[in-house]
Amino acid sequence: MGQKLSPLLKSNAVLAIALNLAFLALALCFCETKFEESDDFYLASMLSGAYGNAPNAKIHFVNFIFGFLIKPLYLIFPTVSWFLVIQIGLFFCALTGVTYVLLQRLGRSFGFAVSLFFVAFFSDDLYIVYQWTKSAVFLTLSGFFILLWASKEKRHWAFLVSGGLLMLCGSWIRFEAFQQAFPFMALIYFSDFWVYKKYTGIRDLLKGERRLWITAVIIALAILGCGKIHQQAMSEEGYPYYSQYNGTRAAIMDYSRSNATDFFDDIEEAGFSKEDYNLFKNWIFYDPDVYSLQKIQILQRAAQVNTYSKTQRLKFILASNRPAMVSGYPIFWAFIILLLGVAVTHRRALWPTLMAFLLAISLYVYLMFLGRLLYRLEFGIWLGSACVALWYLKPIMRFRWHKTYTILLIFVLAAFKFSIYIPADFFAQRTTECTEQDKSEINSEIFFSHEYNLARYESRPHKYGCYSELKKELESHPENLYMLSLLDMIRPQYCWFSPYQAVPVGYFKNLIFLGHWTVYWPDVTESLAERGIKNPLKELIKDNVYVVGQTAVEDGKLKDFLMRHYYDSVSVDLVKIVDGVRIYKFRAE
Questions:
Q1: Residue 182's pLDDT band (cuts 50, 70, 90)
Q2: Distance (Å, whole) CA 440 – CA 438
Q3: Are residues 490 and 414 in the same domain?
Q4: For residues 171 and 143, is the Cβ–Cβ distance under 8 A?
Q5: Residue 458 lies in a domain
């Protein structure tokens, strides 16, 4: 028996699986998976059918094919959030594949140490703080890493297929993230020729790389074909309008104003009031008359005209404190350490790794120039840079990596990761009731922050049942339509369901935002139509329609909007306060 197990235990595949099972188990047992952004929660909710009468494979931002493939799982096991579970499974497969490649390239001892280091630094952003953009770029780069190794080393076609499938899945989850990974993939591929000088000419190159080129063409055609299928699926009634409206809305929200006075003059000349614009910026705009597509396009044009100039943007970049922020990212230091590793083990290949660093800086400047630099995009930048460094690491022939060094590395990483895997409240004796401190943590550490925050990885927003009384209150009145203020309600809703728990079919049909990127989503439109609602803002005064959240209510701005556009007189009554959240009734007098 021992003789039969011995080859198995010495297998690099078994070691790769064991290492990644250990990290997955640590994350699942000692940490709480959470969505980095509310967007991820609502994507999963749309797929589970929370806004309609059945699971919906068409979720616009994610390729229709991905939704189509996992939709049957929602029908069979409706309580599980397959949107997240499937991706966690893909992360495990991708990390295991990369680990196996490193073990093959660097040897069992040194390869294990490098894999341990890589997984320790990058898996937290996959298993603990999930975000779909990070998911897509990771699957794309890891798939390419496996595919390129399999091609260069003439490995079995199964490795080519597995790498290609991971890349395809990355493009399904978010095509733009696939594009973000492309510069790093190109850098690895083309710099490899100069480092190893394997080919003497173009003809020799094409012949030697035939398998890779054929695989690349197949993957490219598959990605383009899947994109066409997605476009066709999203061309059905209701979806094109939603897509155009949401794109225009996003453009308005994303632009900064260089001169507010000129901006307001422009929109008022076009018939759009300053007061209506301020409501729009506070995510209150579900009115097909006042905030029609044609009218918000006025805002978009004014925003484009009155945005900051290129010179002003360059000044912002030069004055930015981003370098100080980046120096606090573990993934940044992971790349720096890997870069130093290349300098020690493979000095000839140091220049591509330095080029990756320059590419990272260039992408930072570009994204800052656009005003779109977010941590989820920074993750892709440093992951891509790390993949370049990993590709060029080599074992030192004159130096034997001893097990003692690996044990020391494990202790160092354990000390570094202790606060994440063993949070301060892990051994604390306390009740399961939600405290004001818990709510504060949810508000400050989970939402409204696009930057890296270590507290996000340590926090447990679903542990103590925060906002559970509010959930019970809204559930107990299915006959009512609750129009939710995004700024007040997006955080409580997040706490109601574990990321691994699917929001039930139809659960949000009577919980509709006054403004959100789900506005005009066909399922949402149909849910409102079932209640006879055509203009949500105008019809706030109807029986059994309530507003949840105080934004624009306590200061009277929503009341003024209704009187400005629809009614002579409007009264607002506070119905009740549940878990600190206010519920109001609007009436026309």
A1: very high
A2: 5
A3: no
A4: no
A5: no
DSSP assignments along 279-343, one per residue: HHHTT----TTTT-HHHHHHHHHHHHHTSPPHHHHHHHHHT--HHHHHTT-HHHHHHHHHHHHHH
Nearest-angstrom CA–CA distance, 463 and 230: 37
SS3 call for 513: strand
pLDDT given for residue 334 in this prediction? 96
Instruction: Choose the final residue of a domain: 389, 419, 449.
Output: 419
21 and 89 fall within a common domain:
yes
Dihedral of alpha carbons 449, 452, 455, 456, sign: positive
- Rounded (10°) CA dihedral 212, 215, 218, 224: -70
Q: Which residues, 6+ apart, have CB-to-CB distance to 195 below 8 Å?
A: 348, 349, 352, 392
Assess if residue 254 is contained within a domain: no
Provide the pLDDT for residue 199.
56
Residue 381 shares a structural domain with residue 478? no
| 379-417 residue pLDDT tens | 999 999 999 999 999 887 666 777 888 888 888 888 888
Same domain, 412 and 473: no
Domain shared by 473 and 415, yes or no: no
Q: How many domains does the chain have?
A: 2
* C-beta separation of 388 from 192 below 8 A: no
Cβ atoms of 302 and 429 closer than 8 Å = no
**Lowest mean per-residue pLDDT among 16-20, 105-109, 395-399, 409-413:** 395-399
pLDDT value of residue 62: 93
Q: How does pLDDT run across 418-476, given as a tens digit for each residue?
A: 878 776 555 555 556 777 777 766 666 665 567 788 878 877 766 667 888 999 999 99
Q: Does some domain include residue 438?
A: no
Same domain, 107 and 226: yes
Domain that holds residue 498: 468-588
Contact 317, 365 (CB under 8 A): yes
Residue 295 is assigned to a structural domain of this protein: no
% of the chain at pLDDT higher than 70? 90
Q: What is the mean pLDDT of residues 563-587?
A: 95
Which residues contact residue 47 at a Cβ distance below 8 angstroms, ignoring those fewer than 6 apart? Answer: 55, 56, 57, 59, 62, 67, 70, 71, 74, 82, 83
Q: pLDDT for 296-341, tens place per residue?
A: 998 888 888 877 777 777 777 777 888 888 999 999 999 999 999 9
End-to-end CA distance of the chain: 86
Same domain, yes or no, for 165 and 224? Answer: yes
